[in-house]
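Retro notes (design track)

What went well: tokenization of the new backbones is finally stable.
What didn't: we kept losing track of which sequence belonged to which structure.
Fix going forward: every design gets posted as structure first, then sequence, in one message. First example under the new rule, 369 residues:
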């Protein structure tokens, strides 16, 4: 056996001490000889027997070690059971009571940096069945505005010190949205009636690119509970566009709560010779006097549907007639084009034939000479 293999057997922990001694003696004997044996034939019977016994012993111990490793069960990672909805609700209630508005300490997400801040809100996440805290970090030199992030309630250290949470102020639109819709609609009708005299008046929008600006109508917006003047104007390209201005009004208690409209900014003086203003006022008065729409009876609906159907049939007949005329025009144009192509091909063939005949005649005359 080669010396390298013998050296591996010596270094193998599975080889017994007695075998290691015998193998090492063989290695030392070889090193003492100037020319080491080239193959196993130079080993004595005692040396070969010692090597075979060491190999068998090492193979046996390796197989036993492999069987023992296979026999050990692999440890499986057990999934943590999710808490129930009742437990989640109890944890959220506890977070609102013990954590909300308190100073706290937590690790910044994705880092090992511990920061200080306060609990700004509580979030119940039903998919993961977890309770999260919204944390506002303190202002530092690195982060002058602070930072907001979520952390699991159980991973946050709650401190006894508390802070005052500032509630978001409600905007004017939200306050107006709380007004009862029917009550606001009654107020809006009074404002529209009082502001009707402004329809058609010219107004300066304060922009030289917006010309011929005029109040065209009045609009009630239920979402913002606001009444607007709709103002039409022409831009620098001459296109007709719109803008809106809110109508501001007050009530004169001396006159029984009469609605008084505040004159909009930029309103130009009224010109008695302004015919456009008179046209807008006429349309506005006609619209104001128009009776509200009433629901149609089933009989009236049938009559309306029949009239619409007859009108659609007539439109279809006209469209079919126009289609036939266009098809006829196309066929005539196509026939004229085909005739032109045929004529051009015939002329080309005639010219080619004449050229061939002329060439043949010239060749024939040359042969006669």
């Amino acid at each position: 056996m080669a010396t390298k293999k013998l050296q591996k057997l010596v270094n193998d922990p599975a080889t017994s001490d007695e075998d290691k001694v015998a193998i090492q003696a063989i290695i030392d004997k070889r090193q003492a000889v100037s020319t080491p044996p080239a193959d196993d034939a130079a080993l004595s019977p005692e040396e070969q027997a010692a090597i075979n016994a060491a190999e068998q012993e090492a193979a046996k111990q390796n197989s036993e070690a492999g069987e023992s490793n296979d026999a050990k069960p692999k440890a499986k990672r057990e999934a943590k059971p999710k808490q129930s909805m009742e437990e989640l609700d109890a944890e959220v209630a506890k977070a609102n009571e013990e954590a909300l508005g308190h100073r706290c300490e937590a690790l910044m997400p994705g880092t090992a940096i511990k920061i200080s801040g306060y609990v700004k809100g509580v979030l119940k996440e039903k998919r993961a069945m977890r309770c999260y805290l919204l944390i506002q970090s303190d202002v530092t030199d690195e982060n002058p505005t602070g930072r907001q992030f979520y952390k699991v309630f159980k991973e946050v250290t709650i401190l006894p010190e508390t802070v005052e949470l500032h509630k978001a102020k409600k905007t004017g639109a939200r306050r107006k949205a709380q007004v009862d819709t029917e009550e606001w609609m009654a107020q809006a009708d009074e404002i529209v009636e009082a502001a009707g005299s402004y329809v058609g008046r010219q107004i300066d929008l304060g922009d030289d690119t917006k010309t011929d600006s005029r109040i065209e109508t009045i609009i009630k917006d239920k979402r913002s509970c606001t009444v607007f003047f709709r103002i039409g104007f022409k831009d620098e390209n001459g296109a007709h566009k719109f803008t809106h201005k809110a109508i501001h009004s007050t009530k004169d208690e001396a006159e029984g709560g009469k609605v008084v409209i505040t004159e909009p900014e930029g309103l130009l003086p009224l010109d008695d010779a302004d015919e456009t203003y008179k046209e807008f006022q006429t349309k506005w008065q006609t619209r104001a006097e128009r009776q509200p729409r009433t629901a149609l009876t089933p009989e009236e609906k049938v009559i309306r549907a029949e009239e619409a159907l007859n009108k659609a049939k007539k439109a279809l007949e006209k469209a079919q007639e126009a289609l036939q005329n266009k098809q006829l025009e196309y066929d005539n144009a196509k026939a004229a084009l085909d005739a032109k192509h045929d004529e051009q091909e015939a002329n080309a063939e005639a010219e080619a034939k004449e050229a061939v005949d002329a060439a043949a005649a010239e060749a024939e005359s040359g042969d006669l000479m």
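Added context from the reviewer: The chain is about 45% helix and 20% strand.
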